[in-house]
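Field reference: sequence -> structure
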Amino acid sequence: MPGNIAIAQQAFKLQLAGRWVEGTPLVATEKQVFLLARDGKMWEFAPSEAKSYSKSSGKFYAYSQAEMRGQLMREFGSKFEVSGSGHYLVVHPAGQKDLWAPRFEELYRSFVHYFNTRAFRPSEPRFPMVAIVYPRQADFQRAATADGSKSVQNMLGYYSPKTNRIALFDVTAGRTGLDWSTNADTIIHEATHQMAFNAGMHNRFGQSPQWVCEGLATMFEARGVWNGRIHQNRADRVNRIQLAAFRRYQPRRSSNAIAEAVSSDRAFNKDTEAAYAEAWALSFFLSEQEPRKYVQYLSKTAAVKDFTLYPGPQRLKDFTDIFGGNFGLLESRMKRFIGELK
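Structure field:
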């Protein structure tokens, strides 16, 4: 599986920052170590920071769901409960048992169904997928800041490739009478990131192109994508928010926008709204008009080498190897396709 290179490697046990960690090194140099722990978290540290370093008795393997549940209960304490459903463990405020885990599991089933209908078989996640649901926005913001997020003021949730967890703030505050879809877009977007990084569409340890990651996640926000077994019309698969954003930005859009998006992530640092709209439009166009090639391209970008740069020329080559190099034709086809959406 891309981004999961430790399947048959030796396990080690060591102390980091005062706690015991068991895992396997992904990369180790004299200055830096990247270690994948049994809970799916990736630790980055200098060799001198590791204490009591020793080999474990066997090969590296992930925690079982029962082991992971125990770890999470110890980590979060009595104010939280841990609910499990298939591939997920959800940490949530006590008293909300079985409210969240089935939602995530249903999203996972829809995710697998979407790709199976496009002749792509997602890999089985190696680790139990973990979501943390905070009861108050202040709790979520504190946790996000501690996790390294810089801009948390308007954030409702995020997926961290480093911890392999989703964290989110429940705007319904656990009140079952309120529709959970109040913050469904955030939940679905971040859950899509987590599923894609765990099921072989993206690479946690490589440079997955940002337009690919965000394009897939914004596509899944539409009910016809995340719930395609019920909502089967193309109109249901359109992300209305991103379509409107794309049309607002279209008058100033570069004539070479596809090649620019494919070759670099820079647009996400300059005009975030436009970059997301471009990522959605290109992803939706390719997934609808070239579905087999689109999933082939996802596989290709997921197979990039771990812990190495993915330079622009190689990104362009990987794209043109599958979709061809006539960007003028692609631009005109995409404009026509997006223009006809209602």
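Note: The chain has a mean pLDDT of 90.
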